[in-house]
Amino acid sequence: MALKSLVLVCILAAVGAACIPVGEAQLGGIGSLLNLIHIGGNLFCTLNGNMGVNGTATPVFPNAGVQLQCGAGNVISSATTNSAGEFSMLLDPLQFLLSSLLTNCNLVVNTPLSTCNSDLPSTGNLLSPLKLFGNTLRGLLNIANLIPSGFTFFPPSRPLGPYPPTFH
Fold it and tell me: In angstroms, rounded to a whole number, what is the distance separating the alpha carbons of residues 49 and 75?
């Protein structure tokens, strides 16, 4: 009987060890291949692209072009909002450092606001820096989730540059 209990304990220990997540250091070089960066959010048809005060009914901005621009306006990725105003981009973390995306990149909406509401400006852009919303684990895959931290309207006479503005 003691032998059966010992075998059962060993089997349970082996199964339990197999269920423990494997750290990136244990995976060697393939650990970084099991990561993704997801940038996504909702765009609303307002002067600042955000939801109305206290969650009031706010129309979404469908078919809007959203670009991820880094540095001096280099377009890294782009997406188009769907009928619910949602957009999504996936990036390879082997090509982009998360810290660089958070400090040197912005989401830029290049579709005129007047497209979704004729009372809004027909020139200018919405711009938002990024913020980390958290990580999602899917098995061994680790997904860093970035979202807009809040869009701001930039009239055409104001350069897009880095946002928030840097002062020297």
Answer: 20
Pairing of strands 35-42, 141-148: parallel
Tokens describing residue 119: 């009372």
Task: List, for the chain, all residue ranges whose pLDDT scores fall below the cut of 50.
Answer: 4-31, 165-168
Query: Which is it for strands 125-138 and 105-109: parallel, antiparallel or unpaired?
Result: antiparallel
Beta strands in the chain (DSSP E): 35-42, 65-70, 74-80, 86-91, 105-109, 125-138, 141-148, 152-154
Specify the pTM: 0.72
**Residues 161, 149 contacting (CB under 8 angstroms):** no
Q: What is the pLDDT of residue 111?
A: 93
CA gyration radius for the chain? 22
Q: What is the pLDDT of residue 17?
A: 39
DSSP code, position 51: P
Nearest to 35 by CA among 44, 45, 46, 23: 23
The residue with tokens 């032998």 is: 3
Give the phi and the psi of residue 74 in degrees, each rounded to 5: -70, 125
Q: Output the CA torsion sign for 43, 124, 116, 45.
A: positive
List the beta bridge partners of residue 131: 147
Strand partners, 80: 65
